[in-house]
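Design request, tokens follow.
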């Protein structure tokens, strides 16, 4: 999958916090793995590729 959240469609800018945040709600186990660095692949990762979406619609 991905090794960076920067290319994920769920990684969006939050105006209230003035920073980028993940829109997915991780449960307690997933969050502890993520914070400890043992999170190899995100099950919620979706590539933010607009061209792929347009190609699919054609």
């Amino acid at each position: 999958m991905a090794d960076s959240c920067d290319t994920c469609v769920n990684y969006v800018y939050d105006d209230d916090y003035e920073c980028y945040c993940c829109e997915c709600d991780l449960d307690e186990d997933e969050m502890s793995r993520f914070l400890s660095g043992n999170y190899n692949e995100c099950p919620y990762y979706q590539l933010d590729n607009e061209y792929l979406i347009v190609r699919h619609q054609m």
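Comment from the thread starter after seeing the answer: thanks! DSSP finds two helices and two strands in the chain.
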